[in-house]
Amino acid sequence: MPAAPAVDAAPLTPSAVSRRRRRRGWTWTIVTVAVLAVYLFPVYWMISASLQPQANSADTAWFPASPGLGGYQMALDDAGIGGLRVSILVSLGSVLVTLLVAIPAAYALSRLRSRAVSIALILLLLAQMIPSVVLATSFYAMFNSWGLLNTFIGLILANSTAGVPFAVIVMRAFMLRLDTEVIEAATVDGLGPLGTLWRIVVPLSRNAIVTAGVFAFLFSWGDLLFGLTLVNRNEMYPISVLILALSNSNLNTWAATMAASLIASVPALVVILAAQRHVKAGLTAGSGR
Length: 289
Fold this sequence. Notes:
Layout: H1 14-50, H2 70-111, H3 115-129, H4 132-146, H5 152-175, H6 180-188, H7 193-204, H8 206-221, H9 225-229, H10 239-247, H11 254-286
């Protein structure tokens, strides 16, 4: 006796498809909100702790019952203005040095066609793999003989070592996508290598340059090791070192530590928000090669 033919499942109606899509959308929304809450919880904890002047790391409440700004006052008195000034000057100086070195290096590596380019890129990657403590020890001996300890120049040069390799790699990836005909036309019009770089390549590579500058700023802004190793004068300590000193203090400074951490995050947040459009475009374009 022949088997009965299989019955096909009834096709979904448009309303059923719409309901399924809505359920899937709500599921992804809930998952996204949960992940975002996990990532933002440390920020909330810092805000809550900074508003509890009498609390310490062991008995900080989830919600401040009687919030106060004493922690912010102590943070500004002990670690605020001076540390922020040092960190801002060092970070901006590191950005300047990084771009002055990385822009021509990236352009040269994007134009050359030889095995030496691959070797140079490998060396740049290896430079990023060197432990910071090794660099800090070497810099201390070198800067001590040069008289650059406790100076802005010393901190700027040390922090630039993290930004230059990254900036060269990012900007080279972007410059490889530039139209060679435009660059050749500039050469035909009489522009030399430096003129072509400054008048043609730099404007066209604006997004990549901003991206490299933002990351160089963040590398320098978050530095702790160089600030501890190359500086031993209170007025030259960056904000990261002063926050560490607050957290290690015997005084009840937990609220001040959290307040100083929030204050220190404001300049970095401003830089990221101001440059996010360029950073997104620079990273996206650089990944397409």
